[in-house]
Amino acid sequence: MQKISVRSALSADQVGNQVKLEGWVRTRRDSKAGFSFIELNDGSCMGNIQVVADGNLANYESEVKKLSPGCSVRVLGEIVASQGKGQTTEVQASEVHVYGWADVETYPLQKKRHTMEKLREWAHLRTRTNTFGAVFRVRNCVSRSIHNFFQERGFLYVHTPIITASDCEGAGEMFKVTTLDLEAPPKADGKVDYTQDFFERPSFLTVSGQLEGEIFATSLGNVYTFGPTFRAENSNTSRHLAEFWMVEPEMAFVDLEGNMQVAEDFIKRIISDVLNDCGEDLQFFNDRIDDTVLSTLTSMADSEFLRVSYTDAIDILLKSGQKFDYKVEWGTDLQSEHERFLTEVHFKRPVILHDYPRSIKPFYMRCNEDGKTVRAMDVLAPKVGEIIGGSQREERLDVLEQRMQEQGLNPADYWWYLELRKYGTIPHSGFGLGLERILQFITGMGNIRDVIPFPRTPGSAEF
Amino acid sequence: MQKISVRSALSADQVGNQVKLEGWVRTRRDSKAGFSFIELNDGSCMGNIQVVADGNLANYESEVKKLSPGCSVRVLGEIVASQGKGQTTEVQASEVHVYGWADVETYPLQKKRHTMEKLREWAHLRTRTNTFGAVFRVRNCVSRSIHNFFQERGFLYVHTPIITASDCEGAGEMFKVTTLDLEAPPKADGKVDYTQDFFERPSFLTVSGQLEGEIFATSLGNVYTFGPTFRAENSNTSRHLAEFWMVEPEMAFVDLEGNMQVAEDFIKRIISDVLNDCGEDLQFFNDRIDDTVLSTLTSMADSEFLRVSYTDAIDILLKSGQKFDYKVEWGTDLQSEHERFLTEVHFKRPVILHDYPRSIKPFYMRCNEDGKTVRAMDVLAPKVGEIIGGSQREERLDVLEQRMQEQGLNPADYWWYLELRKYGTIPHSGFGLGLERILQFITGMGNIRDVIPFPRTPGSAEF
């Protein structure tokens, strides 16, 4: 008997087939006529298939009538057209085998609704709920879309290192990695002797694979990274994680205009793949989580992303007459309220801001001739603000060294990064997209902890 | 003028097209007739395209005749059929623009060959060599193949956590992750006060995503992880890294037989994708690195993998008359020499050994009725030995708890893992494949440090 998924079983073309289904009971309902309906889910889709278990099954009284939410079963039977409303097919069971019980007294996921906070404490069980099944199917779809987008364009997938000895990437606070005994670390001259540590020097978890990605772009052409990234920041917000996944393409012989175009194509591709492949899950988010999810995604897939310079954006904000909490002033970073005003109120579509003041941007961004701005870009989306940040990279050795000194960095720490400019330097560009940020945007989930399997935040590393 | 890759430019159907090419000079050769040949590479493939730069180019004397290995250029010109041997096409340049020079006095990658050890010190430049270009194109191909194999079968890609508070996974020595000041960690009762650390408890880098993967398999069905994994072992060998990438599928309602079949299909798929997509690179490895690479891969793609029990394998080894350094005895782990004898000498094909002694295997592997063995399996390949390790998982709560106690583990540390068995437990299985191990197998590269972009080993975390 062929094993099929619930997703397949729900399709009309299975009618008449003898099949095997395996999954978990969501509910059981007994008919007065002496049979039971079991709603069965196996994670292959949001929907359950209805199993009709007849009273003459050998274990009907002893087992079937004791099934409760969470029990695992194997069902053999025939797929038949359903008489019920809202479903095309159901299974007429010839056998219901119980793999595992779930005690109704202690099983946490009874029918009543639980808060997101409570479900986070049960991260080992929350994947059994409709919401988290949908979240992780969408997460898979977006991850697949990311790979497909870049692979189809001939980008190489590159694994940049997680452990790094550069404490100077400047993108945020770093976690230390060590094998020293913290109770009694070896000392030399009164200080911790890192020559006895695993890597014989202080080591950290990476905050970005960009600099290493540039090594590959400046030798093998277009590449992308997709992997975990870390921030040891004590930010207990709904938008921050200590461990998250980031995509960072890096492109050879590409300037800022090319970079912006790839970023726009990339986001649109992700959105159109999710709209095509996860319709049922998106409908659920739209119904239960945020009723603007579908309209926002559809309109974003169809909009041309505007290009607006930072300087023009500042003008627009200053002339808007809008009252903001944070002052608008050329030379300071835009706040979320400013970004949202631009995309949601003023332009009513996604906007790519470019050419930011050099004083607020990192050393590696390419300097413009005006002496005041760098070739940076941020993609702003309605509801969430910045979703992508990137730049053309500074490829001129002398300018790069000068920028490092400007920012108090020691060029010697970056000897290999500088050599990429010393030998056969090329114009190149790249950007970064946080996977969890775009997942929040797509699903409407309010807290970033609920779009990653096991969130790491201050004080929390369970599971 | 259309930008194309060197890979495209080498194809006969480009003849007659005006194109733009960008890349790095590999060599320059001047003809007495007053023009120059430039070998241009852009990383899109192993091969270079020959650029014919005529003496009447405006910058011929001032720049073209000074081009040396490593210089970066943009070439505009027409693709023409090549008169030369061993190439189909070449470019008749109408413009050669120099992006960046590479001083012949100091550029490390001059024509002479360098040792692998030396190239490791120049990991920021080694990607510009033929060998490492080929390695990283193959690495990309294998990574893509991994995703395609599982996605086409409906597996969900799951990101299990890198930072974990379980120091009890038992698979190896772990790195500590901390934000405490190692010079003066806070103390309570004379010991380090981890409640003041970022996660408020001791935290580590993961050695495996399996246990968390099981959470997803026992709720959403078949899943796989693909991400970085860590071992803080002081192993300075050609087969060990402190940071490496691992793939770990975990499958619901699948027993050991199903697990072995997926493992076999998986390896064959990777090999056939590499044979199809990376022919030129594999030919290079066969010519320059290991002349058995192509024959081994081809034969492996065609062989049925044998299933042999550990007990039968011990019998075969004992009766072989072969002299081994390590004693063969039921109840001890097989050594590499034993594994290689079985695959290379005795069976002459890949072998999957199964049902290993329970005393040498971890607590989570399913116990057989014989009381002596567990449902473990190892896939052994010629030349490298074990390439995949996996098992059916113990799904019986009482047996699992007993096994934990047998191995001196505290069940309370695994409360959530046990609850997967308490509520709706199911038969399930999975395995792990180290990306770098299979890359060594495919490329013939002798040292694992040379199949990962930036190797992390004891004393080494540069770049």
Automatic annotation (TrEMBL), chains A, B:
Enzyme class: ligase
GO annotation, biological process: asparaginyl-tRNA aminoacylation
Catalyzed reactions: tRNA(Asn) + L-asparagine + ATP = L-asparaginyl-tRNA(Asn) + AMP + diphosphate + H(+)
Quaternary structure annotation from Swiss-Prot or TrEMBL: Homodimer.
UniProt superkingdom: Bacteria
Signal peptide: none
Major site of localization recorded for this protein: cytoplasm
EC number: 6.1.1.22
A GO molecular function held by the record: asparagine-tRNA ligase activity
Organism expressing this protein natively: Blastopirellula marina
Name listed for the protein in its UniProt record: Asparagine--tRNA ligase
Subcellular location: Cytoplasm
Keyword Ligase: yes
Positions of the Aminoacyl-transfer RNA synthetases class-II family profile domain: 136-453
Stored InterPro entries: Aa-tRNA-synt_II (IPR004364), aa-tRNA-synth_II (IPR006195), aa-tRNA-synth_II/BPL/LPL (IPR045864), Asn-tRNA-ligase (IPR004522), Asp/Asn-tRNA-synth_IIb (IPR002312), NA-bd_OB-fold (IPR012340), NA-bd_OB_tRNA (IPR004365)
Keyword Repeat among record annotations: no
Keywords from the named record: Aminoacyl-tRNA synthetase, ATP-binding, Cytoplasm, Ligase, Nucleotide-binding, Protein biosynthesis
Family classification: Belongs to the class-II aminoacyl-tRNA synthetase family.
